[in-house]
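ping. complex inputs:
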Amino acid sequence: MAENVKPRVRVPKTASRDEVITIKTLISHPMESGQRKDKDGNTVPRSIINRFTAEFNGQLVVDTRLEPAISTNPYLEFDARVPETGEFKFTWYDDDGSVYENVQKVDVS
Amino acid sequence: LGLLPIAVRAQDAAAAPAMTADDMIAEFTGGAAVADGDGVTLTAPEIAENGNTVPISVDAPGASEILVLALENPTPGVARFTFGPLAASQAAATRIRLAKTQDVVAIAKLADGSFVRTASNVKVTIGGCGG
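pong. complex structure:
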């Protein structure tokens, strides 16, 4: 079970219609690869964020499958287009079944 | 003694889900041919002083999906990006782990359904001091 998992995202608060905005996301997570051994020589079981999705008003921006090769505190950067005022919903799925969500409102003028 | 079978089973479980790079490519393309060349860009450093966090980015205009593999890692999968209607570009950046010097590969499924591939060699100098 990963502890102190905290999502952070950078999204502008306002945008013009159909503007391309760059979104940066980071979530604090050890991304235990399942390859490491502890000091007694036992393999530390895999425990990673295995999927990330970004949606705007229910429409998909990007859906990403993450593997153990993604670094600790997975960082993702991508571009979205915002056709109207609404909300981004970011969701991270953990191997342990936990789901972490973050919602960001964007006003489109 | 009673604990031994559990330990063995745990090891089996850890070893089981090892898909090879070829398996992952076949799953991604459905067996279709993959061309080398234009249509997908992979940006990665030539030299990474720390294999634990190597910045990479992929870009494939018009693509619906991009698969990223690290061929010499213990498990070759890195990420698979699926772009939706509100993706302003079919591009993404992240940070990855590389166990050693190797080729990082990106394969994109383009708008016409064809697949293109590119690779970039990254030298990993763990514990190095820039030399």
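DSSP finds two helices and nine strands in chain B.
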